[in-house]
Amino acid sequence: MTIQRIKPGPRMSGAVVHGNTVYLAGQVANATAGKSVGEQTQEILSIIDGLLAEAGTDKTKILMTNIWLTDMATFQEMNAVWDSWVAQGNAPARATVEAKLAAPQYKVEIAVIAAK
After folding, report:
1. Where are the alpha helices (DSSP H) in 55-115?
2. I need a labelling partner for 30 at 20 to 30 A (CA). Which of 13, 42, 83, 105 fits?
3. Mean pLDDT across the stretch 51-80?
4. Sign of the torsion formed by the C-alpha atoms of 49, 63, 95 and 98
5. Cα torsion for 42, 65, 12, 33, to the nearest 10°?
6. Hey, what long-range contacts does 6-11 have (CB within 8 A, 24 or more apart)?
7. Whole-model pTM?
8. Looking at the predicted structure, is the pLDDT value of residue 1 above 90?
9. PROSITE patterns annotated for this entry (predicted)?
């Protein structure tokens, strides 16, 4: 079975497709780094939409999502953006935890696994 790497880099790929499964790397905000969790979440979900489209799928086929927040006090703020984005009737399995991220300007990171 072939493996397709989308946006490959020296350390990781943005997404990897194996068979009918798409694995996205954890995504962080670029343009909104340092801004609110809501703004970062909105940007990240847009990045995820783009990567899923490149892989030939979309958010209606997300199977699992992992979300990391630097502060669980921002859980509701992140959820407000998530709830308006997630495909109604197609909510994936999901885990959300508090964690220290790679750099202080990042307040949220999101990774998904989707079917094609």
Report:
1. 75-85
2. 83
3. 98
4. negative
5. 20
6. 6/51, 6/54, 6/55, 7/51, 7/54
7. 0.97
8. no
9. UPF0076
